[in-house]
Design brief:
480 residues, 3 domains, 3-stranded antiparallel sheet, 16 strands, binds adenosine-5'-diphosphate, binds magnesium ion, binds zinc ion
Length: 480
């Protein structure tokens, strides 16, 4: 039988406000345990929360970016439960009247399909603390620094069918919130966390199957593996005549398995009731009009523009525009050199390589667009060849502090050698020193030409103009 996977996502995103949602404590990540908290966020009796208006602004701007309707009047509710990371024993959230509803996210997946995911709702809430489990003995230490950090929870409809849709969706949320400047969406640091609800059904069936929920998977790779594992587990259960139990499961990245955590709780278990300490939130039409006006250009519009106006290939445009930081580097460098193809070239080869092979995060890139532009001018003027260019680019990219590309080239004596007589002499010497290769060339093995190029380049420390080397060598070989 052919099976179809059905998934819905609940994504928590920490908002990058300076202070927490209901008090003036810092939201900064890390810090010594229990140093970023006060009586309000640790839930001391008699304290009162005061809503941080910046949280509402960031939340509403996120909602608008995801094409949601915004409830001009919305409210907070108490979600009651006891857990050691939640000292108040309730979380302030929104259940009955969340601030945003009925949105839509349009995606292009890696394989190029267009997919639309509906957003059920988005609500504001506060984060809980963290529990640090001792490596020795059975002690657990609560750290309340994260208590009261503002979150939005984005609840999708069960519209995902393929893993690549989930990945494209999370990438799009990250990119959109980065452009808005409302969150850094770092899965490794927990500022974006995805819960994946998953069920399976025979392909073509009208009804959904019973779902399980996988909580807080902390990387895209782990999400891919968790979906693969959990869908297989459910299919095997059903094929063996058993039933899927609706429950929350934990993905164990080391064991590469999911484990049952608890059977699915529902809203009743939380004894939700309206939060009495916070007045309802109202959002005016003027505010919304203002947020729409200050909305930045997002990845898709940028990518379209890079294709239409700057001649980039769609795939490259999408990758560069997908990150606020890559797009900024691209645009600022191009503004200085006006050669999008060349800027693209160095970004899509060298920078992609550093990102993929060395784990460079786009937001950590410190490359100065002015130096990058200068570098491109130097390459285009033929003052260094492209091979040496890679070396210079790498030094420039990883430089700590100021970097002067002119000075670097001078100091390392990297200027291109285009002295024809020197190249002729070198070619002659290489031919004289390699009688065996000459023999092979004479017997018709023209591939050996590459060897002569390589040797000549090596003699000239990689700095020769490759075009001149090729021309001189072709002449010399003809005479053999
Ligand atoms: P609850 O109220 O129990 O949290 P919701 O209806 O709010 O349940 O759904 C929670 C998440 O699970 C949503 O993202 C939704 O899209 C997803 N979901 C609901 N039903 C299914 C299903 N049968 N298969 C996969 N995902 C589902
Ligand atoms: Mg839910
Ligand atoms: Zn506080």
């Amino acid at each position: 039988m052919e099976w179809e996977i059905v998934m819905g996502l609940e994504v928590h995103v920490e908002l990058a406000t300076k202070t927490k949602i209901f008090c003036a404590c810092t939201t900064e990540f890390g810090g010594a345990p229990n140093t970023h908290c006060c009586p309000v966020c640790t839930g001391m009796p008699g304290t009162l929360p005061v809503l941080n208006r910046q949280v509402v602004e960031y939340a509403v701007r996120a909602g608008l970016a995801l094409n949601c309707g915004i409830n001009r009047y919305n409210k907070f509710d108490r979600k009651n439960y006891f857990y050691p990371d939640l000292p108040k024993a309730y979380q302030i959230s929104q259940l009955y009247l969340p601030f945003a509803h009925d949105g839509r996210v349009d995606l292009k997946t890696k394989s190029g399909r267009d997919v639309s995911i509906r957003i059920h709702e988005i609500h504001m809430e506060e984060d809980a603390g963290k529990l640090v489990h001792s490596l020795f003995g059975d002690t657990t230490y609560p750290d309340y620094n994260r208590c009261g950090v503002p979150l939005i929870e984005i609840v999708s409809e069960p519209d995902f069918r393929e893993t690549e849709e989930v990945i494209a969706y999370l990438n799009k949320l990250k990119s959109t919130f980065e452009y808005l400047g409302i969150s850094d969406c770092k899965m490794e640091e927990g500022s974006m966390r995805a819960d994946v609800n998953l069920s399976v059904r025979p392909k073509g069936a009208a009804e959904f199957g019973t779902r399980t929920e996988m909580k807080n998977i902390n990387s895209l790779k782990a999400i891919e593996r968790a979906i693969a594992y959990e869908s297989k587990r459910q299919i095997a259960l059903i094929e063996a005549g058993e039933r899927v139990v609706q429950e929350t499961r934990r993905w164990d990245e080391n064991k590469e398995k999911t484990f049952a955590m608890r059977s699915k709780e529902n809203a009743q278990d939380y004894r939700y009731f309206p939060e009495p300490d916070i007045p309802p939130v109202s959002i005016t039409d003027e505010e919304i009009a203002h947020y729409i006006e200050i909305c930045p250009e997002f990845a898709d519009a940028k990518a379209d523009r890079y294709v239409a106006e700057l001649g980039l290939a769609r795939e490259d445009a999408q990758i560069i525009a997908g990150s606020k930081y890559l797009a900024k580097l691209f645009e600022e460098t191009n503004a200085a050199v006006n050669d999008p193809a060349e800027v693209r070239y160095w970004m899509m080869t060298q920078i992609m390589y550093f990102m993929n092979e060395r784990g460079v995060q786009p937001e950590k890139i410190t490359l100065d667009p002015a130096q990058f532009a200068k570098f491109i001018e130097i390459v285009k003027a033929g003052r260094i060849n492209r091979q040496i260019g890679k070396q210079v680019f790498e030094a420039m990219f990883f430089a700590e502090g100021a970097f002067d590309v002119e000075q670097y080239i001078k100091e390392h004596d990297l200027e291109q050698v285009d002295d024809k007589s020197l190249i002729e002499e070198t070619v002659a010497a290489v031919i004289a020193a390699n009688p065996k290769a000459v023999e092979q060339y004479r017997s018709g093995q023209t591939k050996i030409t590459g060897f002569f190029v390589g040797q000549t380049m090596k003699q000239l420390k990689g700095k020769a103009n490759p075009a001149t080397v090729n021309a001189v060598l072709a002449e010399a070989l003809k005479k053999l």
